[in-house]
Write a structure and sequence with these properties.
Layout lengths: L1 E6 L2 E7 L6 H17 L7 H7 L9 H16 L16 H18 L5 E5 L2 E5 L22
Antiparallel strand pairs: 1-2, 2-3, 3-4
Helix pairs in contact: 1-4
Length: 151
Amino acid sequence: MRETRILMGMPITVDVGGAPNGELIDAVFGYFEHIDRRFSTYRADSEITAINRGDVPVVDWSGEMMEVLALARQTKDETDGYFDIRKPDGSLDPSGIVKGWAIRNAAWIVQRAGICDFFIEAGGDIQSCGKNALGHDWSIGIRNPTTRTRS
């Protein structure tokens, strides 16, 4: 079962083999909706927007927020500062790390349901496992970002 929805400002595709109905796919998309409500810098009602406004003290930040910020800090350290979610104005924009983190977590939702064959793609970031609907390994192509005619 394969479905694409626009969430988090981008198309997200979930392809789950062996799912008995659409409930699992709905659960995965529900998770992405939850993440958008928490981390979107474009939503006035998101947690990250409230944090950037100074409306939420650190002690009240969600566990998910703390996890993402710790991962962002680790990534900043590992890249010698090249990756940084802090914008020049001092606000936080975790968009560069949230998408991959959310895809990984969505994959765990599928795996905990006992499904081994799946593909989750959000804005070009992909997590896949097992086989596609034809029983073949997933085939992923990468387009050259500077020359669309070359791979």
